[in-house]
Write a structure and sequence with these properties.
The protein has 17 helices and 5 strands. It is mainly α. It has 2 domains: 196 residues, no CATH class; 119 residues, no CATH class. A hairpin with a 3-residue loop joins strand 4 and strand 5. Helix 2 packs across helix 3, helix 9 packs across helix 10 and helix 10 crosses helix 17.
Length: 331
């Protein structure tokens, strides 16, 4: 089984074009809801019980999810390994994590609205990408570990990362700019982005800024298309002031990237700075984080406008330079 772990900082970001509309935007609002398999509740029952028969029940009911969690969170390759369930219970029995788990289960006891939003979004994805497999959806708790777990036919979200920015425990572990993304409103876009990244993995040069920009821009463009009602600033984890700063300084941002020769230079440390959530003070004192994704999305949106390409054509084009050139992006 292939296990892919998708990290939060590359996802859950959207963008609004100048007129607030997008040609490929989803108009489906009454699709069949996408059911979420509550692996999180089943595991919580296990760790709060002395009944060892629940181990076998969990494995029989959620075989793939149990294996994926073991690999992604416990670093154990198979539930058949000796001590698997002992390690599982010990991990989740840590008092702070156990309290977090209980809070998460309570907050997400009902997920009806989330399931409807996912149904609408994945209906658009199926319509736009007919050959794409639609995954089974799950929820888990990782203790701030792996936020999104993706298997061959499933995607699972760690709900303890979506408790709301004012959740008390977050104050001890996360900065303000990180907590702004840890909202219930990020659950649906993170499911979608996680699956899209799995179906269209990054094939460019990891250290080259342009390649990373365009890839992130593609994913964010599709997330916006699937969820046209999502507020761009909120999805970026930006304040309204930060969003306006990006819009007002777009030309200066691009000029700084080009003049510093960052666009093509394969410098890993430099490239990573453009995708961190922390404020991009290496560009300007007021610059918010994740500037690379913001610019990448601007380029991709302009490319789609100039070429009238379909989303499927966009995702099949892995030539970042060609997309930049055809976009005629010159802020």
């Amino acid at each position: 089984m292939n296990l892919k772990i998708v990290l939060t900082f590359l996802m859950a970001i959207s963008f609004c074009s100048c007129n607030g509309q997008q040609t490929n935007a989803n108009t489906i609002t009454t699709a069949t809801p996408m059911p979420i398999n509550r692996f999180d509740k089943a595991l919580f029952q296990l760790i709060n019980s002395d009944d060892t028969t629940l181990n076998r029940q969990l494995l029989e009911q959620y075989p793939q999810m149990t294996e994926i969690l073991g690999k992604g969170v416990l670093n154990m390759q198979s539930p058949d390994m000796p001590g698997f369930f002992i390690k599982l219970e010990n991990f989740y029995s840590e008092p702070t994590l156990k309290n977090l788990y209980a809070d998460a289960i309570k907050k997400y006891d009902s997920v009806t609205e989330i399931e409807q939003s996912l149904g609408n979004a994945f209906a658009w994805i199926h319509e736009t990408f007919p050959a794409m497999q639609i995954p089974a959806l799950y929820m888990h708790v990782s203790g701030f570990n792996q936020n999104v777990l993706v298997g061959d036919s499933l995607v699972s979200l760690s709900i303890d990362k979506y408790m709301g920015e004012d959740y008390p425990l977050y104050q001890d572990f996360f900065y303000d700019y990180q907590r702004r993304k840890m909202q219930p409103s990020h659950v649906v876009p993170d499911y979608i982005a996680g699956w899209l990244m799995s179906e269209y993995p990054f094939n460019g040069k990891e250290n080259v800024l342009l390649d990373r920009m365009i890839y992130d821009g593609k994913i964010k463009y599709l997330v916006l298309s699937a969820l046209p009602d999502m507020a761009p600033a909120e999805l970026f984890g930006y304040t309204n002031e930060a969003w306006e700063w990006c819009k007002n300084n777009e030309a200066n941002i691009w000029k700084a990237i080009v003049e510093r020769k960052h666009l093509y230079t394969p410098d890993q440390m430099t490239t990573l700075k453009y995708f961190e959530d922390m404020p991009a003070q290496f560009l300007a004192s007021d610059a918010p984080g994740n500037i690379g994704s913001w610019v990448g999305l601007k380029i991709v949106s302009q490319f789609m406008k100039e070429t009238n390409a379909t989303p499927e054509t966009l995702m099949k084009n892995e030539n970042s330079q060609e997309i930049l050139t055809l976009s005629k992006y010159k802020p």
